[in-house]
Amino acid sequence: MAHTELNVRERRRIEDMLNAKMSVGEIAADIGRHRSTVYREIKRNYYHDEEIPYLNGYYGLNAQDYATDRRARRRKLVRLDELRKAVITQLKEGWSPEQIAGRLKFEGQTIRVSHETIYAYVYGPDGQSRELARYLPNRRKKRRPHHSRKPRGLVFPPDRSIHERPDYVDGRETFGEWEGDLMIFERAQGKANVASLVERKTRFAVLFRNNDRSTTHLMNRLMSVMERVPQPARKSITFDRGIEFRNWRKLKPGIGTEAWFCDPQAPWQKGSVENLNKRARRYLPRDAPVAAFSDRDMKSICDRLNGTPRKCLGWRTPTEAFREELMKLR
Protein backbone atom coordinates (compact mmCIF):
# COMPACT_ATOMS: atom_id res chain seq x y z
CA MET A 1 0.00 0.00 0.00
CA ALA A 2 1.37 3.42 -0.92
CA HIS A 3 2.46 5.65 1.93
CA THR A 4 0.22 8.63 2.66
CA GLU A 5 0.90 11.36 5.17
CA LEU A 6 -1.41 12.01 8.07
CA ASN A 7 -4.18 14.49 7.30
CA VAL A 8 -5.68 17.19 9.49
CA ARG A 9 -8.65 14.99 10.51
CA GLU A 10 -6.29 12.29 11.79
CA ARG A 11 -4.17 14.85 13.61
CA ARG A 12 -7.24 16.31 15.33
CA ARG A 13 -8.23 12.78 16.34
CA ILE A 14 -4.76 12.14 17.81
CA GLU A 15 -5.08 15.36 19.83
CA ASP A 16 -8.48 14.36 21.21
CA MET A 17 -7.35 10.86 22.16
CA LEU A 18 -4.16 12.12 23.83
CA ASN A 19 -6.29 14.47 25.90
CA ALA A 20 -8.38 11.43 26.84
CA LYS A 21 -5.17 9.74 28.13
CA MET A 22 -5.33 6.95 25.55
CA SER A 23 -2.16 5.03 24.69
CA VAL A 24 -0.27 5.29 21.41
CA GLY A 25 -1.31 1.73 20.57
CA GLU A 26 -4.99 2.55 21.07
CA ILE A 27 -4.70 5.72 18.98
CA ALA A 28 -2.96 3.83 16.16
CA ALA A 29 -5.66 1.17 16.12
CA ASP A 30 -8.40 3.81 16.07
CA ILE A 31 -7.05 5.76 13.07
CA GLY A 32 -5.73 2.69 11.23
CA ARG A 33 -2.04 3.60 11.36
CA HIS A 34 1.04 1.80 12.62
CA ARG A 35 1.93 2.69 16.21
CA SER A 36 5.41 3.87 15.09
CA THR A 37 3.75 6.35 12.72
CA VAL A 38 1.70 7.81 15.56
CA TYR A 39 4.65 7.87 17.95
CA ARG A 40 6.82 9.65 15.37
CA GLU A 41 4.04 12.14 14.61
CA ILE A 42 3.65 13.08 18.27
CA LYS A 43 7.38 13.39 18.86
CA ARG A 44 7.98 15.44 15.70
CA ASN A 45 5.08 17.87 16.13
CA TYR A 46 4.91 18.25 19.92
CA TYR A 47 4.59 21.90 20.93
CA HIS A 48 7.02 23.26 23.54
CA ASP A 49 6.78 26.63 25.26
CA GLU A 50 9.61 27.32 27.72
CA GLU A 51 7.94 30.40 29.19
CA ILE A 52 4.48 28.86 29.65
CA PRO A 53 5.14 25.12 30.12
CA TYR A 54 1.51 24.25 30.84
CA LEU A 55 0.82 24.95 27.15
CA ASN A 56 3.13 22.12 26.11
CA GLY A 57 1.35 19.41 24.22
CA TYR A 58 0.24 18.02 20.87
CA TYR A 59 -2.17 20.21 18.87
CA GLY A 60 -3.63 18.86 15.66
CA LEU A 61 -3.81 22.16 13.77
CA ASN A 62 -0.27 23.11 14.81
CA ALA A 63 0.96 19.70 13.70
CA GLN A 64 -0.69 20.20 10.32
CA ASP A 65 1.05 23.58 9.93
CA TYR A 66 4.43 22.06 10.84
CA ALA A 67 3.95 19.28 8.29
CA THR A 68 2.93 21.74 5.57
CA ASP A 69 6.02 23.83 6.29
CA ARG A 70 8.29 20.78 6.07
CA ARG A 71 6.77 19.80 2.73
CA ALA A 72 7.34 23.32 1.41
CA ARG A 73 10.99 23.15 2.46
CA ARG A 74 11.39 19.76 0.81
CA ARG A 75 10.01 21.26 -2.40
CA LYS A 76 12.51 24.14 -2.36
CA LEU A 77 14.83 22.29 -4.75
CA VAL A 78 11.91 21.73 -7.12
CA ARG A 79 10.76 25.35 -7.10
CA LEU A 80 14.12 27.15 -7.28
CA ASP A 81 15.95 26.36 -10.52
CA GLU A 82 19.27 28.07 -9.72
CA LEU A 83 19.51 26.49 -6.28
CA ARG A 84 18.68 23.07 -7.70
CA LYS A 85 21.30 23.38 -10.46
CA ALA A 86 23.94 24.49 -7.97
CA VAL A 87 23.19 21.58 -5.64
CA ILE A 88 23.24 19.01 -8.45
CA THR A 89 26.52 20.42 -9.78
CA GLN A 90 28.17 20.01 -6.37
CA LEU A 91 26.72 16.52 -5.92
CA LYS A 92 28.31 15.51 -9.22
CA GLU A 93 31.59 16.96 -7.97
CA GLY A 94 31.44 14.51 -5.10
CA TRP A 95 30.31 16.91 -2.35
CA SER A 96 28.11 15.46 0.37
CA PRO A 97 24.76 17.13 1.21
CA GLU A 98 26.29 18.31 4.52
CA GLN A 99 29.17 19.95 2.66
CA ILE A 100 26.82 21.65 0.17
CA ALA A 101 24.52 22.99 2.89
CA GLY A 102 27.46 24.06 5.04
CA ARG A 103 29.13 25.88 2.17
CA LEU A 104 25.95 27.81 1.33
CA LYS A 105 25.79 28.96 4.94
CA PHE A 106 29.50 29.83 5.01
CA GLU A 107 29.16 31.94 1.84
CA GLY A 108 26.25 33.85 3.40
CA GLN A 109 23.82 32.90 0.65
CA THR A 110 20.35 34.35 1.19
CA ILE A 111 18.73 31.20 -0.18
CA ARG A 112 19.93 28.13 1.68
CA VAL A 113 18.95 24.53 1.98
CA SER A 114 19.55 21.99 4.73
CA HIS A 115 21.32 18.69 4.16
CA GLU A 116 18.12 16.83 5.07
CA THR A 117 16.28 18.70 2.30
CA ILE A 118 18.98 17.70 -0.18
CA TYR A 119 18.74 14.06 0.91
CA ALA A 120 14.94 14.19 0.59
CA TYR A 121 15.28 15.55 -2.95
CA VAL A 122 17.94 13.01 -3.95
CA TYR A 123 15.82 10.08 -2.78
CA GLY A 124 12.55 11.61 -3.95
CA PRO A 125 10.96 11.08 -7.39
CA ASP A 126 12.85 13.98 -9.04
CA GLY A 127 16.22 12.89 -7.67
CA GLN A 128 15.62 9.25 -8.52
CA SER A 129 14.75 10.12 -12.12
CA ARG A 130 18.14 11.86 -12.36
CA GLU A 131 19.90 8.98 -10.54
CA LEU A 132 21.46 11.46 -8.11
CA ALA A 133 21.97 8.90 -5.33
CA ARG A 134 24.95 7.42 -7.18
CA TYR A 135 26.90 10.66 -6.55
CA LEU A 136 26.52 10.43 -2.77
CA PRO A 137 29.60 9.32 -0.80
CA ASN A 138 27.73 6.31 0.60
CA ARG A 139 25.99 5.61 -2.70
CA ARG A 140 22.83 3.88 -1.51
CA LYS A 141 19.92 3.30 -3.89
CA LYS A 142 17.48 4.19 -1.11
CA ARG A 143 17.87 6.09 2.10
CA ARG A 144 17.49 3.86 5.12
CA PRO A 145 15.10 5.06 7.83
CA HIS A 146 16.85 6.47 10.87
CA HIS A 147 15.48 3.74 13.14
CA SER A 148 16.91 0.99 10.93
CA ARG A 149 20.43 2.33 10.73
CA LYS A 150 22.98 0.28 12.56
CA PRO A 151 25.66 2.19 14.47
CA ARG A 152 29.03 2.02 12.80
CA GLY A 153 30.85 2.25 16.12
CA LEU A 154 31.37 -1.51 16.10
CA VAL A 155 32.42 -1.58 12.45
CA PHE A 156 34.78 1.42 12.72
CA PRO A 157 35.58 1.66 16.46
CA PRO A 158 36.86 4.85 18.10
CA ASP A 159 40.36 3.45 18.59
CA ARG A 160 40.71 3.23 14.80
CA SER A 161 39.81 6.91 14.32
CA ILE A 162 42.23 9.13 12.40
CA HIS A 163 42.53 11.13 15.63
CA GLU A 164 44.20 8.11 17.24
CA ARG A 165 46.63 7.75 14.33
CA PRO A 166 50.26 8.53 15.34
CA ASP A 167 51.27 12.15 14.82
CA TYR A 168 54.26 11.23 12.67
CA VAL A 169 51.86 9.88 10.03
CA ASP A 170 50.24 13.33 9.74
CA GLY A 171 53.63 14.89 9.09
CA ARG A 172 54.56 12.43 6.33
CA GLU A 173 57.75 11.69 8.24
CA THR A 174 57.71 7.94 7.82
CA PHE A 175 57.55 5.72 4.75
CA GLY A 176 54.86 3.10 4.35
CA GLU A 177 51.76 5.03 5.43
CA TRP A 178 49.05 4.80 2.74
CA GLU A 179 45.59 6.19 2.00
CA GLY A 180 42.91 4.19 0.19
CA ASP A 181 39.65 4.90 -1.61
CA LEU A 182 37.25 3.50 -4.20
CA MET A 183 36.56 5.16 -7.56
CA ILE A 184 32.99 4.62 -8.76
CA PHE A 185 31.77 4.73 -12.35
CA GLU A 186 28.48 5.22 -14.16
CA ARG A 187 25.82 2.58 -13.62
CA ALA A 188 26.04 1.59 -17.28
CA GLN A 189 29.52 0.22 -16.56
CA GLY A 190 28.13 -2.37 -14.16
CA LYS A 191 29.57 -3.13 -10.73
CA ALA A 192 33.20 -2.73 -11.76
CA ASN A 193 35.22 -0.10 -9.90
CA VAL A 194 38.81 0.92 -9.26
CA ALA A 195 40.55 0.93 -5.88
CA SER A 196 43.10 3.69 -5.44
CA LEU A 197 46.02 3.69 -3.00
CA VAL A 198 48.72 6.28 -2.47
CA GLU A 199 51.80 6.26 -0.22
CA ARG A 200 51.69 9.52 1.72
CA LYS A 201 55.40 10.38 1.80
CA THR A 202 56.32 9.61 -1.84
CA ARG A 203 52.86 10.06 -3.48
CA PHE A 204 53.39 6.69 -5.17
CA ALA A 205 50.06 5.48 -6.61
CA VAL A 206 48.58 2.01 -6.99
CA LEU A 207 45.35 1.43 -8.92
CA PHE A 208 43.61 -1.89 -9.42
CA ARG A 209 40.26 -2.90 -10.86
CA ASN A 210 37.55 -4.78 -8.96
CA ASN A 211 34.68 -6.62 -10.54
CA ASP A 212 32.30 -5.80 -7.69
CA ARG A 213 32.11 -3.69 -4.52
CA SER A 214 31.74 -6.44 -1.94
CA THR A 215 34.02 -5.88 1.02
CA THR A 216 35.29 -9.47 0.92
CA HIS A 217 36.33 -9.21 -2.70
CA LEU A 218 37.88 -5.77 -2.25
CA MET A 219 39.95 -6.63 0.84
CA ASN A 220 41.19 -9.91 -0.62
CA ARG A 221 42.24 -8.12 -3.80
CA LEU A 222 43.84 -5.28 -1.83
CA MET A 223 45.89 -7.69 0.27
CA SER A 224 46.96 -9.58 -2.85
CA VAL A 225 48.20 -6.35 -4.44
CA MET A 226 49.90 -4.98 -1.31
CA GLU A 227 51.68 -8.26 -0.55
CA ARG A 228 54.06 -7.43 -3.39
CA VAL A 229 55.32 -4.45 -1.35
CA PRO A 230 57.79 -5.19 1.49
CA GLN A 231 56.05 -5.21 4.86
CA PRO A 232 57.92 -2.13 6.22
CA ALA A 233 56.56 -0.25 3.19
CA ARG A 234 52.94 -1.02 4.08
CA LYS A 235 52.59 -0.06 7.73
CA SER A 236 49.09 1.44 7.57
CA ILE A 237 46.23 2.50 5.29
CA THR A 238 43.74 5.29 6.06
CA PHE A 239 40.24 4.86 4.58
CA ASP A 240 36.91 6.63 4.77
CA ARG A 241 33.98 4.87 6.46
CA GLY A 242 32.49 3.34 3.31
CA ILE A 243 30.85 -0.04 3.87
CA GLU A 244 33.23 -1.55 1.30
CA PHE A 245 36.01 -1.23 3.89
CA ARG A 246 34.18 -2.92 6.77
CA ASN A 247 36.39 -6.05 6.54
CA TRP A 248 39.44 -3.98 7.49
CA ARG A 249 40.25 -6.36 10.34
CA LYS A 250 41.73 -8.77 7.79
CA LEU A 251 44.62 -6.42 7.08
CA LYS A 252 46.59 -6.77 10.31
CA PRO A 253 46.74 -10.58 10.47
CA GLY A 254 46.81 -10.88 6.68
CA ILE A 255 49.59 -8.49 5.64
CA GLY A 256 50.61 -6.77 8.89
CA THR A 257 48.98 -3.45 7.98
CA GLU A 258 47.10 -1.18 10.40
CA ALA A 259 43.84 0.49 9.33
CA TRP A 260 42.72 4.02 10.28
CA PHE A 261 39.46 5.78 9.41
CA CYS A 262 38.50 9.39 8.68
CA ASP A 263 35.61 11.10 10.40
CA PRO A 264 32.23 10.66 8.67
CA GLN A 265 31.84 12.91 5.62
CA ALA A 266 35.41 14.22 5.92
CA PRO A 267 37.21 13.24 2.68
CA TRP A 268 39.76 16.05 3.12
CA GLN A 269 41.30 14.03 5.96
CA LYS A 270 42.69 11.69 3.30
CA GLY A 271 43.63 14.45 0.90
CA SER A 272 46.45 12.54 -0.82
CA VAL A 273 44.18 9.86 -2.26
CA GLU A 274 41.49 12.44 -3.09
CA ASN A 275 44.13 14.30 -5.10
CA LEU A 276 45.20 11.04 -6.75
CA ASN A 277 41.59 10.32 -7.74
CA LYS A 278 41.33 13.71 -9.46
CA ARG A 279 44.51 13.03 -11.42
CA ALA A 280 43.41 9.52 -12.30
CA ARG A 281 40.03 10.75 -13.61
CA ARG A 282 41.87 12.15 -16.63
CA TYR A 283 42.40 8.54 -17.69
CA LEU A 284 39.43 6.99 -15.89
CA PRO A 285 36.40 9.28 -16.35
CA ARG A 286 33.10 8.21 -14.85
CA ASP A 287 31.87 6.89 -18.19
CA ALA A 288 35.02 4.82 -18.84
CA PRO A 289 34.36 1.12 -19.71
CA VAL A 290 36.32 0.09 -16.64
CA ALA A 291 35.27 -3.56 -16.86
CA ALA A 292 37.23 -3.81 -20.10
CA PHE A 293 40.45 -2.47 -18.55
CA SER A 294 43.13 -5.15 -18.11
CA ASP A 295 45.78 -5.24 -15.39
CA ARG A 296 48.23 -4.02 -18.03
CA ASP A 297 45.96 -1.03 -18.74
CA MET A 298 45.84 -0.18 -15.04
CA LYS A 299 49.61 -0.47 -14.74
CA SER A 300 50.04 1.85 -17.72
CA ILE A 301 47.90 4.50 -15.99
CA CYS A 302 49.88 4.07 -12.75
CA ASP A 303 53.15 4.42 -14.65
CA ARG A 304 51.95 7.73 -16.10
CA LEU A 305 50.91 9.05 -12.72
CA ASN A 306 54.05 7.84 -10.97
CA GLY A 307 56.32 9.07 -13.76
CA THR A 308 55.21 12.70 -13.53
CA PRO A 309 57.56 15.07 -11.61
CA ARG A 310 56.00 16.57 -8.49
CA LYS A 311 56.87 19.90 -6.93
CA CYS A 312 56.21 18.51 -3.44
CA LEU A 313 58.95 15.93 -4.10
CA GLY A 314 61.51 18.47 -5.26
CA TRP A 315 60.54 17.66 -8.85
CA ARG A 316 61.35 14.01 -8.44
CA THR A 317 58.77 11.53 -9.69
CA PRO A 318 56.82 9.35 -7.24
CA THR A 319 58.56 6.31 -8.73
CA GLU A 320 61.99 7.78 -7.99
CA ALA A 321 61.00 8.77 -4.46
CA PHE A 322 59.45 5.36 -3.79
CA ARG A 323 62.53 3.51 -5.00
CA GLU A 324 64.78 5.67 -2.84
CA GLU A 325 62.74 4.74 0.22
CA LEU A 326 62.82 1.04 -0.69
CA MET A 327 66.59 1.20 -0.98
CA LYS A 328 66.77 2.49 2.60
CA LEU A 329 64.96 -0.63 3.80
CA ARG A 330 67.74 -2.92 2.60
From TrEMBL:
<keyword id="KW-0233">DNA recombination</keyword>
<dbReference type="GO" id="GO:0032196">
    <property type="term" value="P:transposition"/>
</dbReference>
<dbReference type="InterPro" id="IPR053392">
    <property type="entry name" value="Transposase_IS30-like"/>
</dbReference>
<dbReference type="GO" id="GO:0005829">
    <property type="term" value="C:cytosol"/>
</dbReference>
<dbReference type="Pfam" id="PF13936">
    <property type="entry name" value="HTH_38"/>
</dbReference>
<dbReference type="GO" id="GO:0003676">
    <property type="term" value="F:nucleic acid binding"/>
</dbReference>
<dbReference type="InterPro" id="IPR051917">
    <property type="entry name" value="Transposase-Integrase"/>
</dbReference>
<feature type="domain" description="Integrase catalytic">
    <location>
        <begin position="162"/>
        <end position="326"/>
    </location>
</feature>
<dbReference type="GO" id="GO:0004803">
    <property type="term" value="F:transposase activity"/>
</dbReference>
<dbReference type="GO" id="GO:0015074">
    <property type="term" value="P:DNA integration"/>
</dbReference>
<protein>
    <submittedName>
        <fullName>IS30 family transposase</fullName>
    </submittedName>
</protein>
<dbReference type="InterPro" id="IPR036397">
    <property type="entry name" value="RNaseH_sf"/>
</dbReference>
<dbReference type="InterPro" id="IPR025246">
    <property type="entry name" value="IS30-like_HTH"/>
</dbReference>
<dbReference type="InterPro" id="IPR012337">
    <property type="entry name" value="RNaseH-like_sf"/>
</dbReference>
<dbReference type="GO" id="GO:0006310">
    <property type="term" value="P:DNA recombination"/>
</dbReference>
<dbReference type="InterPro" id="IPR001584">
    <property type="entry name" value="Integrase_cat-core"/>
</dbReference>
<dbReference type="InterPro" id="IPR009057">
    <property type="entry name" value="Homeodomain-like_sf"/>
</dbReference>
